[in-house]
Amino acid sequence: xxxxxxxxxxxxxxxxxxxxxxxxxxxxxxxxxxxxxxxxxxxxxxxxxxxxxxxxxxxxxxxxxxxxxxxxxxxxxxxxxxxxxxxxxxxxxxxxxxxxxxxxxxxxxxxxxxxxxxxxxxxxxxxxxxxxxxxxxxxxxxxxxxxxxxxxxxxxxxxxxxxxxxxxxxxxxxxxxxxxxxxxxxxxxxxxxxxxxxxxxxxxxxxxxxxxxxxxxxxxxxxxxxxxxxxxxxxxxxxxxxxxxxxxxxxxxxxxxxxxxxxxxxxxxxxxxxxxxxxxxxxxxxxxxxxxxxxxxxxxxxxxx
Length: 305
Prior knowledge:
Blueprint: E1 2-5, E2 18-22, H1 30-46, E3 49-55, E4 61-62, E5 65-66, H2 73-82, E6 87-91, H3 93-96, H4 101-112, E7 115-121, E8 125-126, E9 132-133, H5 134-143, E10 147-151, E11 155-156, E12 159-160, H6 163-171, E13 186-190, H7 197-201, E14 206-208, E15 220-228, E16 231-240, E17 252-257, E18 268-279, H8 286-304
Parallel strand pairs: 2-3, 2-7, 3-6, 7-10
Antiparallel strand pairs: 1-6, 4-5, 8-9, 11-12, 13-18, 14-17, 15-16, 15-18, 16-17
Helix pairs in contact: 4-5
């Protein structure tokens, strides 16, 4: 386990009493926000530091492969700062997965993090084979003289809100709908040089790749925002393989930034997805493509107006 000061991102040793927020926190959705809200209150009440305990990589797999992430690690750290955390404790799941629940509480939470109060979700699991739950955590920490606050479930379509459900929504293009439950889906990636076709057609674009391991939204066209320095611009973004001009299967994120005409090659740009417009389409001609893109641009302008 490595602990960092979230303000400086320097490796540090935690010596004071702490309130620890426990979870994988993929998506940092409303359920996770509830855990941090409780932790923030308990930390202030006890004059303790707030620690976010999570993993370098998600322990969840599907078919033997890691589950795609809603947020990169850097995005989660930013969310933790927004939740008021002072430190983050990042663990390797392989190092703790075979620990008994009792050993995890004593060795990790008490001995290393000096926990006086732990906060978790109603469905929190820990210990070897995820054999212990939130009530078990409460029992074990109370043995050590501490306490536990368990957040209640939040519902989405009559089911408990979960990162799994939100991930499915992203993969179905429902980027507008998820904003009621978690930070908007976004990518932060370097701008690569493309074929300059958009510029020749009158709508210059930037080309990016979705960070490795991150959930991929449904192919199609989206209303987006692009963050360039201190400025924010409306945009139209295509996620797909550009069938009209490329005809290959390499996934590309291509954005036309409305009102911006500078060169951004080699820059890291954040693109925030706001609303799905339409499916990816193959056009009979470049003229037909241009006509549709202009309609998409007008739709993005109207959205932000």
